[in-house]
Design goal:
- This protein has 681 residues and is mostly beta strands.
- The chain contains two helices and 48 strands.
- The radius of gyration is 46 Å and the shape is elongated.
């Protein structure tokens, strides 16, 4: 195409006149103007230095540092600008090693199976996976927010509302954030979890009653419509206020527990399935722990909206220093199911509990620590009416009241319950109205009341590894004389407590104790059983060691028995030590019992200063009654033989020559019963 502008149809060429003030030359098809300025070269110049005298829009590819540039001209300046979206330059090909690579942060990343990224199908995930179901409370902070000073309650509740609208989500916060709230963060929808990495939640003011509150709902239903026996897995109730098949029901009642104790002691079992049209047949997650009678006061709660899969984790610290109201819990969880409350710390929640878990099942409470929390009404850690939940790694210190309290829990497990230096009237760890639980590694030291208390009809539980030392007011391990029956204790270590190291009340029946190391033991129950068989930790009798004085029975008590019981062929020993070295033993020996009253003879043994045996001093054979005295016998006072009444030492008199002395001797021997004097004059 010719340079310039073609204007078809000029004079003689279509009737167009020549443009004014524009030098043009006529051509065969119109007027042609003068040439315009040169344009940029077509394509890009390829060299390792910038081109000289570039024009606007010119492209240059830098071969020394692979990058494409454009010469850009604006009204005030001109310069080379990067012409690609990637500012770091191009790069060489990925490594040629047969692996799959992709670009990330200016470098090749290995995307092969087994590497840090998942393939399109298959593979294993380790660690955390970020999903879209995450809500950050920081997105709702007020403009100009000051951490720890601005009230963040509206932001938290806005985050909860968004998570609820999403059908459940995880609420997060910036790591290490400090957040002040003056009211309750309320959760009433399932699937809402808090992951708060090292966040400090500061509770403040007089109106706040719960830091984070998970609130499922219940409706009170009717009493049971039929008697229910212990260990039942189904039961029948009448109409349940509109509950539908497949719903959840909480059963709580005051029941006649073993040994006949009745009262306001709540037990819980959770319903799994409901069938029928009324009365309803309920299939339980766990068997009924004790007989429920229609004469008992029964409360069947219709859990119309339990919260499922909620919780708190991440290492949050809840600070209650600035709370001025009468009651405030750190975390409140009512009617929660299959939920997790983990990695929670608390300080100065003195008007309530770190975690207060009321009614639920299959929950996990784990790694919860608190200092200066709780009071006489609310333990520092308090769960009640839980079924098949777990409580692991709990530690509280300096609680003004109860440290750890499990109440009305059934079929729960837990380990690592530690309570120390709890002041006031509180006990270190208390288990009340608990049935069929299994708790281990319980440590309660330096508390101002009991160390470990088992109270109010707690039955059929197993407590393994209980240590309760140096508690300052009462007992180390205390069975409260409130019908705590059929419990098993494996491994008790209790010393240096204020009154007694192990106390068992008269109504605390049928409890079994394996491997007990304690100082003062006071057992009022008629049938407690202490075992040593199979317990490697016990190497010698007595199992019960008494430090100081011990009294068996009372001034008004009846018959009292102390039994040393074992199978035939085993030694039963009562030993008297000096500095743990034996001096005397009273033994029922291991002579085999072969019939006709043979075996298990009675022996008194002597022991040397170095703890070695000096032999048997005294033996009574059970079958014959024969007595053997191994050494000389000395009798002070009167004596009689052959069933003759004892007499004082006689004086033999008379002249020997006239046989008067012989007569006097015969009379004296006859008086002892050694001879019968049948002599004649």
């Amino acid at each position: 195409m010719p340079d310039g502008v073609n204007i078809p149809g000029g004079p003689g060429f279509g009737g167009f006149p020549q443009p004014p003030d524009v030098p043009c030359d006529p051509t065969g098809d119109g007027w042609r103007g003068p040439p315009g300025p040169p344009g940029p070269p077509m394509g890009a110049l390829t060299q390792d230095t910038p081109p000289a005298n570039p024009v606007a829009g010119q492209l240059w590819f830098d071969t020394s540092n692979p990058q494409l540039y454009l010469w850009y001209v604006d009204p005030t300046s001109s310069q080379w600008v990067i012409a690609t979206a990637y500012a770091g330059g191009l790069t060489s090909d990925a490594p040629s090693d047969g692996q799959v690579y992709g670009r990330q942060n200016g470098a090749w990343q290995n995307f092969a199976p087994g590497g840090p990224y998942l393939p399109l199908s298959g593979g294993t995930v380790t660690g955390h996976v970020t999903t879209p179901d995450v809500v950050s409370v920081a997105d709702f902070f007020a403009p100009g927010r000051v951490a720890g000073t601005t009230d963040d309650l509206p932001a938290w509740n806005a985050a909860v509302a968004k998570a609820a609208a999403m059908g459940g989500a995880t609420i997060t916060a910036p790591t290490g954030m400090v957040s002040l709230i003056t009211g309750n963060i309320v959760v009433s929808s399932s699937g809402i979890r808090f992951n708060l990495p090292n966040v400090t939640l500061k509770l403040s003011g007089s109106t706040i009653t719960r830091g984070i509150s998970f609130e499922g709902t219940t409706t009170t239903g009717p009493v049971l419509s039929a008697n229910v026996v212990a260990y039942a897995t189904t039961l029948t109730v009448s109409a349940l206020n509109g509950i539908v098949a497949g719903g959840y029901i909480s059963l709580r009642w005051t029941a006649a527990v073993p040994s006949g104790l009745a009262g306001n002691y709540g037990f819980v079992a959770m319903v799994r399935t409901i069938t029928g049209t009324g009365p309803y047949t309920l299939q339980l997650n766990s068997p009924v722990p004790t007989a429920i009678l229609t004469t008992d006061v029964n409360l069947v709660s219709n859990t119309t909206a339990p919260l499922i899969d909620v919780g708190v984790s991440g290492g949050v610290t809840i600070d209650g220093t600035a709370v001025t109201g009468t009651t405030c819990h750190g975390i409140y969880a009512i009617n929660c199911v299959k939920s997790v409350f983990r990695d929670i710390k608390a300080v100065n929640i003195v008007t309530g509990s770190i975690v207060f878990g009321f009614t639920g099942h299959n929950n996990l409470f784990e790694n919860i620590n608190g200092v200066n929390c709780g009071n006489d009404s609310f333990a520092a850690f308090f769960v009640t009416n839980q079924t098949m939940s777990q409580t692991n790694n709990l530690r509280v210190e300096q609680s003004f009241g109860f440290g750890l309290l499990h109440s009305a829990c059934t079929y729960c497990t837990g380990t690592g319950h530690i309570a120390e230096a709890c002041v006031g009237s509180g006990r270190g760890s208390k288990y009340q109205a608990c049935l069929f639980n299994n708790f281990s590694n319980i440590q309660s030291h330096f508390n101002h009341s009991n160390g470990c208390a088992v109270a109010i009809a707690s039955c059929f539980n197993t407590f393994t590894g209980v240590a309760a030392n140096s508690n300052l007011a009462l007992e180390g391990v205390w069975l409260s004389d409130q019908n705590n029956c059929n419990n098993t204790f494996v491994g008790i270590n209790a010393y240096g407590n204020a009154t007694r190291d192990l106390y068992i009340g008269a109504s605390d029946l049928n409890n079994q104790f394996y491997s007990v190391n304690a100082g003062i033991i006071e057992d009022h129950a008629p049938n407690s059983t202490f075992f040593t068989a199979g317990m490697a930790a016990v190497t010698h009798f007595p199992l019960i060691t008494v430090d100081g004085s011990s009294t068996f029975g009372t001034n008004t008590g009846g018959t009292l028995n102390v039994d040393f019981n074992s199978a035939a062929g085993n030694t039963r020993t009562l030993r008297f030590d000096t500095a743990s070295s034996p001096r005397w033993t009273i033994v029922a020996n291991a002579t085999a019992e072969t019939g006709a009253n043979v075996g298990t003879d009675f022996i008194i043994g002597r022991w040397a200063d170095n703890g070695t045996s000096l032999g048997t001093a005294f033996t009574i054979v059970r079958s014959t009654g024969n007595v053997t005295i191994a050494s000389a016998l000395r009798v002070n006072g009167t004596i009689g033989f052959n069933n003759t009444a004892p007499v004082a030492k006689p004086t033999v008199s008379g002249a020997k020559g006239s046989n008067a002395a012989l007569g006097s001797l015969l009379t004296a021997l006859a008086a002892y019963g050694l001879v019968t004097d049948s002599t004649t004059a």
